[in-house]
Design a protein that fits this description.
This protein is of the alpha/beta class and about 325 residues long. It folds into two domains: about 250 residues, TIM Barrel (Alpha-Beta Barrel), CATH 3.20.20; about 70 residues, 3-Layer(aba) Sandwich (Hypothetical Protein Ychn, Chain: A). The strands form three sheets. Strands 1-2-3-4-5-6-8 form a seven-stranded parallel β-sheet. A three-stranded mixed β-sheet has the order 11-10-12. Strands 7-9 form a two-stranded antiparallel ribbon.
Length: about 325
């Protein structure tokens, strides 16, 4: 079943640092702090909307650093969500937090409260990049927190960012490898977006930071999708959620409402190009066989993939086969 959350945002609450790229209230479009009643209302609305499917969903606390907020407030929010898990109305509780806001005491509380999944905002596994972006934690903090989360039996999620200040494709790929080595169940990939008022915005305005282009980001993230797929790690999100607030406050960087589809399409194009080269396929007519659900991705937006293959001297026909995997391509 497709991964689903009942998302409750706790905006910029608990964060001891102001990271270079962060302006949390503009990302979420929310400034007020949720109450226990807000949690219950969100859960009830989701139950009516999802019906029986709510039993496979998680109540999720995102934004800020959940385990770094006031302890009693954290327990209050968890206490509002916990009965829905105990009664089987939801599968569990998911939360996101900082790697340096995890210890055994915190994990004991989370275990007792019905938490099932913990996501860590690693962002990078390069200490130099972390320092330049004022994250306030190290790569080793990510490693230690991930090991503890595994020991306690939680599902582990890791979040990474591409195109950060001081990073590049090589460092981003190294981050992906180090994240995969920690054996997370899920990963989120967020290309860097420059928000007005953030420290990164001032670096951008001064010319000290030049963000990657959309095409560069699509190429990199297509590689990352392929890599995590090979490691059997599910990428549950690629790119920030769309919102009016994000669009209004974004100054530069990479955002596209269909970013994942662009990356999946590029990944399939790369697969075809690699096969044509490997088999030394003569120019002319070729048939590409894909899963029926992947036809649009193989074709590309506005037939961009087909045009690219045609520029290489091939005439393409696409056939379908239900037995093929989502991104699998067979060259006939």
């Amino acid at each position: 079943m497709k991964h689903s959350n009942v998302a409750i945002f706790v905006p910029h609450n608990g964060c001891p640092h102001q990271c270079s790229f962060c302006n949390q209230k503009e990302i979420t479009g929310q400034r007020s702090q949720p109450t226990a009643e807000d949690v219950r209302n969100a859960a009830e609305i989701a139950i009516r909307s999802l019906g029986e499917r709510s039993a496979q969903a998680e109540i999720a606390f995102f934004g800020g650093s959940f385990t770094a907020i006031d302890r009693e407030y954290m327990k209050e929010l968890l206490g509002a969500a916990e009965p829905y898990v105990e009664n089987g109305l939801f599968y569990g509780i998911r939360l996101s937090t900082r790697p340096d806001a995890i210890d055994k005491e915190i994990l004991d509380i989370l275990k007792e409260s019905g938490v099932t999944s913990i996501e860590l905002g690693a962002q990078s596994m390069d200490d130099d990049v972390l320092i330049k972006n004022e994250r306030g934690h190290s790569a080793e903090d990510v490693v230690k927190a991930s090991r503890l989360i595994h020991e306690y039996g939680f599902s582990l999620g890791l979040q990474m960012m591409t195109g950060l200040y001081g990073s590049d494709n090589i460092r981003d790929r190294e981050t992906a490898i180090k994240i995969a080595d920690l054996e997370p169940d899920t990963v989120r990939i967020y290309p860097t977006v420059i928000l007005k008022g953030s420290k990164l915005y001032h670096l951008y305005e001064s010319g000290a930071y030049v963000p990657p282009t959309l095409d560069e980001t699509v190429s990199l993230c297509a590689d990352l999708l392929r890599f995590f797929g090979e490691r059997k790690i599910t990428v549950i999100r690629l790119g920030l959620h769309d919102s009016d607030s994000l669009r209004e406050n974004m100054a530069a960087g990479v955002f596209h409402p269909a970013l994942r589809e662009l990356c999946e399409s590029r990944m399939m194009l790369d697969t075809v190009i690699e096969m044509l080269s490997r088999y030394n396929t003569p120019k002319g007519d070729i048939v590409l066989c894909v899963n029926p659900r992947s036809v649009s991705r193989m074709t590309g937006q506005k037939k961009s993939n087909i045009r690219e293959i045609e520029r290489m001297g091939y005439r393409v026909r696409i056939e379908t086969d239900d037995l093929l995997e989502k991104y699998q391509v067979i060259l006939k």
